[in-house]
Amino acid sequence: MRSRDALLATVLILGAAACVTQTSSSRPPERPTVGFGHPISEADVAPWNIDIRTTDGRGLPSGRGSVAQGKVVYEAKCIACHGPEAKGGAMYGTMVGGIGSFKTNSRVVTPGSMYPYAPILFDYVRRSMPMDRPLSMTADEVYAVSAYILHLNGLVPADAVLDQATLPKVQMPNRDGFMLDDRPDTRAVRCMRGCK
Ligand code: HEC
Question: Which residue owns the Cα nearest ligand 1 atom 20?
């Protein structure tokens, strides 16, 4: 062994011994703690968890609103874009009527003519309206303005009060107007695990 190699070998052995001595005499190093964040709880998630099962309203929040209250909300927050009595305004066409028009050549799409379930109206309005301030309304305001729009469409009476129990019971005229697309090339088999 040349002397330089011998020196290197000695250094390596000493180094290894030092390592052994160190690990055998002290505990493994502790994980550094950064102190950021905390475990997430159901309550933390709740403000974001606004899913509603629109067929039966599961997940609708508590709260309530009447047609009369909805008219006040509508005139303060919606009329600028949707026009008086939701008959069409600067930003969007009518949200009233058109019921039955899907069977004609002049289809009019409104919540009354299209939505199969009333909780869809609540869900849509809560998530996206007013378009310039989405998610800014209370549940009471959303129930109320939904009641007002449903009333304008002739689907609830003028004294209706909607909440998580009564809204899903509103019968929408287009409830059975949808059909599953059964063309073979659109058939997708749902796969949750081990999918190809
Ligand atoms: C700044 C303008 C603006 C305001 C204010 C506004 N909307 Fe809208 N709204 C729109 C536009 C634009 C659309 C169409 C969106 C699209 O097709 O993607 C729309 C669509 C809708 C629809 C869907 C209509 C349908 O035929 O399916 C509903 C319901 C609705 N708005 C309710 C409301 C309510 C209730 C308010 C008040 C709380 C409101 N909007 C305030 C602009 C607005």
Answer: 92
